[in-house]
Amino acid sequence: MAEAEESPGDPGTASPRPLMRDLKAVGKKFMHVLYPRKSNTLLRDWDLWGPLILCVTLALMLQRDSADSEKDGGPQFAEVFVIVWFGAVTITLNSKLLGGNISFFQSLCVLGYCILPLTVAMLICRLVLLAGPGPVNFMVRLFVVIVMFAWSIVASTAFLADSQPPNRRALAVYPVFLFYFVISWMILTFTPQ
Amino acid sequence: MAAVDDLQFEEFGDAATSVAANPDATTVSIEDPGETPKHQTGALRGSGREEDDELLGNDDSDKTELLAGQKKSSPFWTFEYYQTFFDVDTYQVFDRIKGSLLPIPGKNFVRLYIRSNPDLYGPFWICATLVFAIAISGNLSNFLIHLGEKTYHYVPEFRKVSIAATIIYAYAWLVPFALWGFLMWRNSKVMNIVSYSFLEIVCVYGYSLFIYIPTAILWIIPQKAVRWILVMIALGISGSVLAMTFWPAVREDNRRVALATVMTIVLLHMLLSVGCLVSFSGEHVLLSQISPD
């Protein structure tokens, strides 16, 4: 995909250039999520690379070792993937059915990008867990997950709230809350072998 | 206002004859300003209700039943058709939830709150929340029961979510379907004044499950007696909402059939509650046999 395009205004550009442009766009959106302001960047130039990267990272970190896969344990890679994408699609459908004027992919883009704080929380949790289990360990993880959960909600609401008529805003935001709550729960209850 | 009633009846006549005359002139949502002041029970009418429903002038459940087939103006393969099921505002959803928590004898949930605007938002998201509430609090209560036991290895029990989801969504859709079929069949034998459309039944069942969400959260408390009391309370409230909704629909019928129907509704509800409770605390019973090793 990157090879086929050439950036306009730059005749004779080498093919890696559009890839860098895409990566920069993704990085810019990450920044927008980390410092949520009311801006249209996420909505205007939506892309699904960022959500894909985040989802894969999260699923890789959440999956258990293969020795444990028979027992009723945590989610497997595919399960996390399915939950994230299925959840995002459901929320998007819900938002559109309620009469929101956001397009399908824009909504998926926003929901996917706003998983970034929770992915960071997962990273921190894994690092903290290396120090060994214990109540202090748990409290630290709980605190980190709660903060990141709140961050995700604030970020996604900043982008999504305007697309709904005001008398239905709460109806559209509640599923987002549920979605990030479930992901936070999966992160918090992650126990390594 | 008598004038409004006259207007309503006139609209009903005109629209019905015009629809009968031109069956394929599907009345798409043309907002005729003269027809919009529909002061039936006024305030609860959402702003988006401007399809056939306005023109055909049905505001009672009985008229809804007659015209249920013509309510949705868009064909079922368009997106707009499904949007009509989500035509609710925030305060309407809250009102309906409140209505399901406070069953007042004589007040019919469907009549009072749904008023021929059934929505799928409430049932769907209440069921989703309930699934996760049961799975998460089941997990938490297991963890708390075994806190401090050296041999207990915490597992998130992710499979429980899929099982809970299947059971709850099946209950929320199949039981209303069966009930609707049964009521339709009885309707063909005994003319009932009150009858409900399929979506209204799904709506009632969905909202009646709301009480189980705080119940599931409170089930974290590991006392058996507390759990049973909570289940009884939840069953009492939601069971009575259901019973009071469906009693008017079967009242005209043979006494025994009517009673049997209502009893079956309550019994199925009881099965769901007790089943959830047993599966919830069943794990801990199993584990307590394994753990002292």
TrEMBL record, chain A:
Leader peptide range in chain numbering: none
The keyword Transferase is annotated on this UniProt entry: no
Location in or out of the cell: Golgi apparatus membrane; Membrane
Transmembrane segments: 46-64, 76-98, 110-132, 138-160, 172-191
One protein family per Pfam: Yip1
Keywords on record: Membrane, Transmembrane, Transmembrane helix
InterPro entries to which the protein is assigned, alphabetical: Yip1/4-like, Yip1_dom
The keyword Transcription is assigned to this record: no
GO annotation, biological process: endoplasmic reticulum to Golgi vesicle-mediated transport
Domain called Yip1: residue spans: 33-186
Topology in membrane: Multi-pass membrane protein
GO CC annotations on file: Golgi membrane; trans-Golgi network
Superkingdom as given in the UniProt entry: Eukaryota
UniProt record similarity statement: Belongs to the YIP1 family.
PANTHER family xref list: GOLGI MEMBRANE PROTEIN YIP1, PROTEIN YIPF6
Protein name: Protein YIPF
The species this protein was found in: Cebus imitator
From TrEMBL, chain B:
Domain Yip1: 101-274
A GO biological-process term: vesicle-mediated transport
Molecular-function GO terms, alphabetical: small GTPase binding
Topological type in the membrane: Multi-pass membrane protein
Domain of life of the source: Eukaryota
Transmembrane segments: 120-141, 161-185, 197-222, 228-250, 257-280
InterPro entries: Yip1_dom (IPR006977), Yip5/YIPF1/YIPF2 (IPR039765)
UniProt keyword list: Membrane, Transmembrane, Transmembrane helix
Biased composition (Acidic residues): 50-59
Compartments, as annotated in UniProt: Golgi apparatus membrane; Golgi apparatus, cis-Golgi network membrane; Golgi apparatus, trans-Golgi network membrane; Late endosome membrane
Region (Disordered): 15-62
Primary localization class, coarse: Golgi
Gene Ontology, cellular component aspect: Golgi membrane; late endosome membrane
Family as reported in the entry's similarity comment: Belongs to the YIP1 family.
Name listed for the protein in its UniProt record: Protein YIPF
